Amino acid sequence: MASVFILDIPENRPVVEIADSDPKTIVHKVGPYFAVTSDEPFSIDRRATGCRHAVWYSCLSGLAGFRVSQWDKDQLVMETR
Question: Fewer CB within 10 Å: C terminus or N terminus of the chain?
Answer without folding.
Answer: C
